[in-house]
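Q: Could you write out the predicted structure for this multi-component system? I'm mainly interested in how the pieces pack against one another.
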Amino acid sequence: MKHTLTPQRYLILLAVTLSAPLGDALLTRGMRQIGTVDLHHLGLLWQALFNPYIDAGILLLIGFFASYMTALSWADLTFLMPATAFGYVVLALLSRFWLHEPLSGRRWAGILLIVCAVGFVANGPSLTEHPELNRMDSGAAR
Amino acid sequence: MTVHASDLRAWSSILTVAALAIAGECLIAAAMRRLGDLDDIRARSGMKGAIRAVLTSPLFLTGAICMALNFFALLFTLSAVDLSLAGPASASLTYIGNAAAAKLFLHENVDRRRWLAALCVCVGVYLISK
């Protein structure tokens, strides 16, 4: 049980899960305020950079990338996949309870499946042991 | 005949999107595995040292290029294929492909529990996106 997660690492997983959907939702809200961008109105993209929702969205997506990279340094890709997919659940719940969009039975079933997937991997080890790499690391340390 | 040709083009562009995402994620994961725990690097060399270590990794840079190509491939795909097909199909294929690539190339221990999780994510994403 060497690769169980510390509370700090659970916080990083929480950041991975929440920052991407929140960032996407903020970008969507910001772009709705800016309006449709086409080839004749490319200047709107520059204007978008000064929209607080867009700025907050960009910051959250940078935060997502930083926390995802950090998590990949101590966890398997297949361990993190359900955590990133949980972002779809957060987005669906945000659209239901914040944007008041209807959520069909099919979408509730999808949410249930992704929650099950998180449950399947959450109790297992976060990182696969590679004895040969560990030997190389301890050799390099000496 | 025309329907088959457009179907083939749609699915080959969806497969390209998924393949680039899988390559990008696996390369970035391999880079981070090779670098080791970023918290340790940050403790030793500070935040700048950690950022430099990541940005100077050839595996990371190749992975980032794949992710950038994935973005443009997705834009190309969306110009020809409906979002309701391209979104869930490419996301589901990426999750299953990631599990297989992680086992083959990263030598991760993808046991029955993780396969089941990948399958649940795949179907779950499909259901949510439809």
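A: Regarding packing and overall arrangement: Residues 7-141 of chain A form one domain.
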